Amino acid sequence: MSITTVTDFPRKVTEIENVWIPLSDGTRLAARMWLPEDAKEKPVPALLEYLPYRKRDGTHVRDALTHPYFAGHGYASIRVDMRGNGESDGLMTDEYARQEQDDALEVIAWIAKQKWCTGKVGMFGISWGGFNALQVAARKPAALKAIVTICSTDDRYEDDVHYKGGTVINEMLGWAATMLAYSSRPPDPKIVGNRWRKMWMNRLENEPFLVIPWLSHPHRDAYWKHGSVCEDFAAVEAPALIVGGWNDAYSNAVPRLMKGLRTTRKAIIGPWAHKYPHFAVPEPRIGFLQEALRWWDQWLKGENTGVSRDPDYRYYVMEPWTPGSFPERINGRWLGDSFWGFGHVETKKWWLNSGGIGPTAGTETPLSVCSKQTAGADGGEYCIIWLGPEFPGDQRRDDAQSLVFETPALVTDIDIVGQPAVELEFSVDKPVAHIAVRLNDVWPAGEVSRITYHLQNLCMRDSRENPMPLEPGKRYRMKIKLDDIAWRLPKGHKLRVAISTAYFPLMWPAPEPVTLTVYAGKSQLHLPLRKEVAGEAPLSWKGAEAAPPADMTELKKPWNRRETIIDEKTGALRLEIEDDFGEYELHPHGLIVRSAGRETHSILPDDPLSAKMETHWTEERRRGTWHTRTETYGRMTATKTHWVIWGRIEAYEGKKKVFEKEFNEEIPRLLQ
């Protein structure tokens, strides 16, 4: 579904490239605003998107599609850069810090007092912006009347780019390296004047390498509870539209938020990766901006738009696509339900037997696996964001290093809708053990698609806050919930459970090779199956609309590469990833932007301590004779007892290096 560009809005729009929002401590935050031209005479509600990603260049392209659209429909749409980012004053010390929330409260109060504002404010955003929409709503600013949160989470420890099931995911360094690069960029002299260089040097001197504090908090302590709205769902009182994608890393949070929040809330979950739904991939896209306007009009303008009559859950049931490919479009159908995991859904309990998955328990049989450390090579990216070849590959190679339980070929289609779980009775031979559990779709010709999965640090079988080492040889029982999903498994396909003790490079390996023993005949699969509903018709949406795209010139085309290299002599795995985002000139301010990110992951098949991840980012900004570039590097390895972190920032004016800084840190490895 293509995007329809809208140019004729109900109200004419004026754009203000930069507005300074003063804070009580003297800091000024930089904002870009789109207003109806007559807003001072006919005040409007306001919408806030609040990010560290730089309005001037970082989100310039996507902002053009969204903010003018809202303004043209009678809203002041405001994109604010956080403290220490873009042209805003100050320094940023961490993600989701208390200071970030405090500043947002002041921004909302300032907006509500402006002559062009009715005093009512909505807050929206994807990822970081979706996180802080929830977090700020929990602080209850008086003017905040509704939120739209997209691809976000209620639990920073359980579902973010740091830990999954208590395991360290490599995205922890990946995202820390991205932020190291993003935060190294200078403010634009056209906005801040001659002080740009002093601001830049101050930021570079104080810039954190966030992987260090993240690894320093390996368990779910107060650091992670801060900003996790699941600690007190009742604190969020603003009506919330919660949006996610099945191919995004944060889909689990949507049902949890729907269950936990006490305010009015509705959910939309599409087939998308980590993108706004009106320009997301894979398609189909939806008229998301129209849906958001229905939400805003209801709660900020008091119009009866019918949102209360919408199904609580509107979600897309995906049909399988060829594994290992990049799906431009995923076939399927939209459904609406009042409940998640019950109502039209019944959870079936099947047994993991030595002869396969069956309806009754078989003879108890111990089955063991010690996966090669290279298992997981086809796992794809944790969070599919850059839209290169990041989807999971064909799972056959990883399944060969796993315990596998399988059904016979299905005689009818089934819809898996909800949160599958695997209940394992198991033992291990080491005090620290991690496993990857995958639910797979086996095609008639033998290809294997990953339906859903989860990673689990078995030391956290009872608690994320107070993990305990495992006693080798002792039998344990644990129910491991996989990621929520809606997937149609066709007739003739088979359902497979695959369990491995490694899943690199998505999951960092345990300190020692682990042999896992699963007791077949005692272990189970809990599978949520949606019933056929007589007379049910799929839901439909308005087509995707957006404001005109940004005025820009492409100087160099973007490209990406993902290559897996296996050494024939040693079996060593090396994964190389390059994402070059091209070079653009942004009009009318004429800033030329170039950006590229690179990652390499390597490991030997029998040595978990050989695991290594390295990153390198380039960020370049220029206009006329003004030319800056930063090169940022990161590396992560581990011993049995410590994480070893190295990082580096280099900054250049033209060809002259004007700044350099290194990070060197060893952090205790506590049951990880």
Query: Which structural category do the helix and sheet elements fall into?
Result: mainly beta
* Counted beta strands: 35
Major sheet summary line: 10 strands, mixed
> What CATH architecture label of the largest domain applies?
3-Layer(aba) Sandwich
Mean pLDDT: 97
CATH homologous superfamily caption of the largest domain: Alpha/Beta hydrolase fold, catalytic domain
CATH class identity of the largest domain: Alpha Beta
Number of domains: 3
Which shape, going by the Cα principal axes? globular
CATH topology of the largest domain: Rossmann fold
- Side by side, the strands of the main sheet go 2-3-5-4-6-7-10-11-12-13
How much is the radius of gyration in Å?
25 Å
Low-confidence stretches: none
* Terminal residue distance: 44 Å
Give the helix tally.
Answer: 11
The share of residues in helices is 10-25%
State which percent range the strand residues make up: 35-45%
